[in-house]
Each structure stands twice: as structure tokens, then as C-alpha cells.
Amino acid sequence: MERVEPIRSEKKIKDLKKYPLGAGNMRNYALIVLGLNTALRISDILQLTWEDVYDFEEKTFKTHVYIKEQRTGKDKKFLLNKNTIEGLLKHKRKLGHINHQDYIFSSRNGENKAITRHMAIRIIKESCAAVGIKEHVGCHSLRKTFGYHSWKKGVPVPVLMELFNHSTQAITKLYLGISQDDIDDVYRLVEL
């Protein structure tokens, strides 16, 4: 798997979210917003069904989602924040009727099949290119972007390690995509 970078510019992230909205593609918008706000791997995102995120009895989105990670087999609980719920709601409204077992990111080819990882990569790369994101990006860029911006806002590495379900802090530090600009910012901040 090739190494991808987080999206460091908050303006570019906003542009990235606006791009599918402008095209009226709520599925792709929800995919990008969910990826940016949950730090899930694409394999876990693509397996989500509406039942995972939506309470059909209460007719409302759940506050927390429980999954078993595909790659690690570990249980994971995560919060659906305001932006994620908004993205899912836009997608749900565009679809109209949804069933419990329908994949959230369903393919247009075939009955109740999730889009493929290849399609997700294409969506993300094309969207990033369209808004001028120059970093080497892929599906994991959304996960890394969450980590990078969490770290920049002061979330400690051990908390991010737990959030990512990493076994070591060294792995988490690699995820953060710390650049020379970030190191230079420390020198600017600490003038003794």
C-alpha cells in the first residue's frame, strides 16, 4: 500500500466537502464527511448499513456506532458528530426510502451492494484533484486528516492511539504526518 498524506489545509478540507455538494452527489459528500469525522478505515466505512447509524424506531440518528473493525477484529465505538449526522442526513434525504440492511454507500450497480474500495479511492482522488489538493491522497488520507487535525488541536498522542486502535504510539506518530512546517511552528511557539 502506498503512503498517503493527510490534508493539512482547513480551507482545502472545506472545499473538498463542498465539491460533491455542488454536483448534488450526496453519497460522495457523506462518504467524505464520514471519513473525515470518524477516523475509520475505508473497509469499515463501506460495510456500514443504515441500521448501524440510524434508529428506525425512534426515526433519528444514533449518537454512537458500534462495529468490529475488519482489519484488526477489534470492537470499536465511535460518536457521530454534528457534521457526520448532517452528511448522512443529506444522503438519506436524497435517497428517500432506506431499509435497515441497505449499505449506506451503495453501488449503483446491483441490488444492495456497497461501492468497492476502488470506487471509493476514485471518488476521493477525483474530488481532491478537483479542488486543488496536491498531497498524495487516497482513502487513508481521510483517516490521517482526522488524526492530524486532532493532534494540531492538542489531542494527546495516547488518546489518538486509542482512537485509532493502534498497538504503539510509534504507529500513531507516523499517521499524524508531521511536516517540517509543523516542526517550524514549535520553534516559533517556544521562544525562551
Note the main attributes of this structure.
mainly alpha; two-stranded antiparallel sheet; two-stranded antiparallel ribbon; 10 helices; 192 residues; hpI Integrase, Chain A; globular
Account of the protein in words:
It comes from Clostridium pasteurianum BC1. Residues 2-188 form the Tyr recombinase domain. Pfam families: Phage_integrase. The chain is mainly α and 192 residues long. The chain is built from 10 helices and 4 strands, in the order ααααββββαααααα. It has helices at residues 10-22, 26-38, 42-46, 50-53, 82-95, 117-130, 139-152, 157-164, 169-175, 180-189, and strands at residues 54-55, 60-61, 64-68, 75-79. The strands form 2 sheets. A two-stranded antiparallel ribbon has the order 1-2. The protein has a two-stranded antiparallel ribbon with strand order 3-4. Strand 3 (64-68) and strand 4 (75-79) form a beta hairpin. Helix 2 (26-38) runs antiparallel to helix 5 (82-95) and helix 8 (157-164) crosses helix 9 (169-175).
